[in-house]
Amino acid sequence: MPRRLSIVALVIVALLCVIASYALRYLLMEGDQWVGRCVEDPANLACQVRATLGWMIHLRVIAWAALGCALLAFVLPGVWGWRLAVPGLLLGLPALALYTASLAVFAVVLALLRLVRAPAVTAR
Phi/psi class of residue 119: alpha, beta or left (left: φ > 0; alpha: ψ in -120 to 50)? Predict the structure, then answer.
């Protein structure tokens, strides 16, 4: 896939990821209807997803995973660095929306810096 097309696809996927993250935040995590429903029936699948996501947010699992991918991507040369920057970005964006902005901002910045880095020219 040409570089320009892959970047356009990445921007579209990142935009969809941000939209889904904010929908998850405002509809499931902060939705008033889920508080009462989850108190009455905590075995409900949506309540279990909400509780698991709450623990993941509390323990900063998504942000640490994004930061780990972004740091590895930043130091790895070539295509492997670019391939690790993509999940670093796509994990960092939901982490920004889901209350862990302190770590996620570094992951997003490192991933974006790696994605825009010019490819190294090899001497023949």
Answer: beta
